[in-house]
C-alpha cells in the first residue's frame, strides 16, 4: 500500500481512507464517524474539497522518488559542501587529511617498502633522490618507512576515535535521557572507566595481549578504553539539559519513538561537540601510541612513526645533526595530521548549524531582523 | 519641519530635556542596510512621563539606545541627539568622547532594561553593586548609600536586607526594583526604561508602574517608558508615542491617543489589544506583518496594512500633521481615519457568552483531576543530599474536571503552580499524590517512569509550549517537524500524502504559500508562524485535550487576538478541549468568554477561584482574583489610581507557605481565622454561570465575620507600605 513512487495521490488516499484507524479520524465532522467513509469517497474522486477541513487541500505538486533523492543529496552532500567550500580551514584541513589518506592507500603502492641496508647509511634529507628523505643508520629509507606506517596509524586512529565517540555518545545519551535505573547503571560503568588509570592499563594489557596488539584496530580501541568515559559524562550532562527542552517534551507527548528522539531530536544538538571530541580522540590516540612506542612499551613488528622516533633517539639524533631528518620526518608527519584534524573539526561545526545551512540553500528568510541591542548596551552601562 | 513648531507657544525650549533631530540608526547586513530607526525627530519634555509604544521590531529599543548613543556595534547613529541639562549649555550626545559618555550615562541619563536583571554579578552582594557604581563615578560612598537606602525603601524594599543579600536570593520583581534604585543612585534627570517589567508578573508589573509615579515626583525625574504593552502605560504616561516600522506614527497626550487616536495603526492597535472591558467582537488582529527593516515600504510604511491607503500613501512619506494641540500624526488621511475607523474600547457592553460554562460542564469529564499534588525536591531525590533539601509543593490538592469541548484557562502569578498542574493534567508531569483520569481511566496505570503506558491516552493529551522558538527543534525543517506525528499516528499515509496534509494544514492556518515554508528551518519563521506550526503539529495527532502554555504571550500584541482566534477555530473544527495557561487576565477573558469556558485562578499551588469568564472578570469573589483584576490595566487614561488591593507586593516563600488561607499574608480582608483555618470551595454558581471561590467571605455565616482583622496590626495601616511584610523570601514571623 505504501507506494513511494509517483502514483497519483488521490488513489493513495482511497486506500488510506478505507483502512481502519485511518486519517479520517483526523477529519472532524459533526456527523460522526459514519459520515467519514462517504466523505472519503468524495475526496478520493479527487478534488471535492471541503473548505472547512484543513486536511483537504490538494497539492498540485507530486513528489517523485527523484525529488526525494534530490533532497537527500541537497541535505547531506551539496549543503555541507557549499558551506565548507567557503571556509579556508575546512579546505586546508581536508587537503591535509586527504593527503594522508592518499599516502596511506595509494602511496604504499608507489613507494617500495624498505629493508636494512637498502641504501647507504645516514644519508641526509634531499641529498640523494633515491632516498629523498634520507636513510637511517641501518640504511633504511626514511620516506618508505614513513609511508608504509601510515595505513596502520590511520586505522588505529580511526578505530580509536570511532570507538570513543560511539561508546561515549551511546552511554551519555541513553543515560541522560532515560534517567532512573538505566542512568544509575550506565553512570556507574562510566565512573568506573573514568577512574581507570589509562596508561598503566594499556601497558599491562599490551603485555598480556601481545599477539593482538600488532593489530592497529585492537590497539586503537585499547588506547581509547579510558577516553570514552569522559565524553560519556559530558554528553550525559548536556542531554540532561536538552531533555527538558520544549521540543523534546512535545516529541514525548506525541509518543515519537525513543530512538527518534535520541537520534534525531537530541543528537543533532550534540553533533558539533561530538565531532570536536572525535578529532581530539584521534589526536590523543596517535600521541599516546607514538609515546608508547617511543618508550618502547608497546611491542612492535614493523617500523612506524613512534618506533622511528625511538630509533632515531637511540641513534643519538638529538645531538647528531646528520640524523635530524630521521627524527624530524615522523614528527612532522604526526603534527601534520593533528593540525589537519583540528582545522577540519573547527570548520565542521558550521555544517551542523541550521542557520548557516539555511543560508547555503535557496530557501527564504534571513537572520533575525533587529540586532539584539540589550547585551551590548548592558555592557556599556556597567562601569 | 519639526513636529513641534506648532507648539512653540506652549512649550519653551527650557522644557526640553532631550531632543532628537533626524536621528537614524543603521546596520549593514548581508542583504543591504537595515534602518532600525528612520529619521526620528522628537523631543522629551522635562518632568514628563513619555510612553513609547511599539511592537517587537518597531525600533523601540533602538530609540532608547540612540538617546544615550549606546547603539551596539556595528550600528551607526546619524542625526543629532541633544541633551539639555538643567543648567549649562546643551550637550550633543553623539559627539561625546568615551569618557564623557560614561559620565553622562548614569549621572545625567540612566537606563533600566528588561534583560538587565541578569546584569548583577552573582557573587557580589547588592551593596557592592551600589558601591562600585558610586566609586566609579567618584561619588561620596556614604552619602550615596544613604540615598540608596532611601530609594530602596521608596520601592517598598527593606534596605538593610536588600543591601546584604546576594542577587540569587531575590525574586525577579525585587531584582528589578533594586535595579531601578541602582539606576537612580546618582540622581540622574532622565530615566529611560526599555520594557522594564516585561519579564515580570502582572501584579508585580502593575505594582512597579504605580511606584514609578511617586518616584518620579520625589526625585524630579523625567521618564521615557518603552513598552509593547499599551495598557500598562496608559494611565501612567503624560504623552504617548506610537512607533511603527522604525518611525513615529503618532505622538500626543495620552488622553488623545487613547480616546481619539488619529493614525490608522494606533486605532488598529487599540482594537487588537486584549482587555477586560471591550466587547469581544470588536477585538481584531491587524492583518499582515511588520515590515522588514531592509525593505521598508515606500511612502507611508503602514500602507500595505492600512485600510485607507491610496496612491498618495504609497509614494509620499506622510509628514507630521497637526491633529490638535500637541498631537502629531504621520498620516495623510488622519481625519478620515477618525471618522471611518472604529475603535473598540469606547463603549462597554456586556456581550453574551456563546455557550454557558455550566452547560459544558455536564456529562462525563474528559480529564478529571482529583486531589492532585505535585511536590518537587523530595528529600530522597538525589545522590547529593545535604540533609536540608527543601521541598516545594507546586500543586497542593487540586481537583478539576475538564469536559469534552471545554476550555479552562488557568491564571496566576509565576510560581503559583499553574504550569505544573497543567502538565500533570496532560500526563507530562508525574503527580506525587492524587489521580488523573482520562475518560474514567487512570492515566498513570501501568506507567513506567515518566511515560504513560496507554498510547491512546498519550495521543489524546498534547501540549503547545510558551516559547515557539524552543518548541520546534532548530535542526529540523518544517517538513520533518510536521511529518513525525503523521508517521507515528498515521502510518498508512505515504510520503506524498503526508506532504499534502502538511501543505493543507499550513495553508489553513494562514501560512502561505505553504510550498515555500515546508523546507524552512524554524529560525526562518517569525514567532507567529512558529507558534502556528507548533499548534498544527499537536493537532495532527488528533488530540482530545491540548495544553496551551502561555501560547500567545511571546507574540506581538497585534498578533495575539489572531492567534487566539485561530486556536478557537481549531477547537471548533477538531472538537478538542483546551487547557490554557495565562498570566494575563485579558487574554484569559478573551479565550474563556469567546468559547464559554472557565477561568481558574491559582495562588501558591491552590485553586482559589474558578468560574465562567463573565463572573471572574465582572464579579470576582476571592480577594486574590480582585487583585489580579486590579493589576490588569485598562485602556483608559484616568482610571482612578486605586490603591493596591494587596498588603504586600511580593509572594511568600513557596517552600514555606503561610498557614490557613495562603493568601492571608497579602489579603486586605484577612482576619485572624484566615491564618489558622483553610477555606474550602463554596459553590456560588447559578444556572448560567459557574463560580466557586475558596474564601471565608463567600460564606454568609462563618466564624470569619466575628474574627479580628489582622490587616492593621502594624502602626501604619497603609496598604503595602510596611517594609517588614513585603520581604517575601523570608516568611513572616508574625
Ligand atoms: S498615510 Fe495612508 S497608508 Fe499611511 S496610515 Fe495614513 S492612510 Fe494609511
Ligand atoms: S480566607 Fe481570609 S485571607 Fe483568605 S482570601 Fe478570604 S478573607 Fe482573604
From TrEMBL, chain A:
Belongs to the binding-protein-dependent transport system permease family. It is a multi-pass membrane protein. Residues 1-62, 363-383 are annotated as: Disordered. It comes from the Archaea. Its main location: membrane. InterPro entries: MetI-like (IPR000515), MetI-like_sf (IPR035906). It holds the Pfam family BPD_transp_1. Residues 50-62 have a biased composition (Polar residues). Keywords: Membrane, Transmembrane, Transmembrane helix, Transport. This is ABC transporter permease. It comes from Natronoglomus mannanivorans. It is found in: Cell membrane; Membrane.
UniProtKB/TrEMBL annotation, chain B:
It comes from the Archaea. Residues 20-270, 367-629 form the ABC transporter domain. GO terms for molecular function: ATP binding. It holds the Pfam family oligo_HPY. InterPro entries: AAA+_ATPase, ABC_Ni/Peptide_Import, ABC_transporter-like_ATP-bd, ABC_transporter-like_CS, Oligopep_ABC_C, P-loop_NTPase. Residues 707-716 have a biased composition (Basic and acidic residues). Its main location: membrane. Residues 719-734 have a biased composition (Low complexity). The keyword Coiled coil does not apply. It is a peripheral membrane protein. Residues 707-734 are annotated as: Disordered. It is found in: Cell membrane. Keywords: ATP-binding, Cell inner membrane, Cell membrane, Membrane, Nucleotide-binding, Translocase, Transport. Gene3D superfamilies: P-loop containing nucleotide triphosphate hydrolases. The keyword Cell inner membrane applies. This is ABC transporter ATP-binding protein. It comes from Natronoglomus mannanivorans.
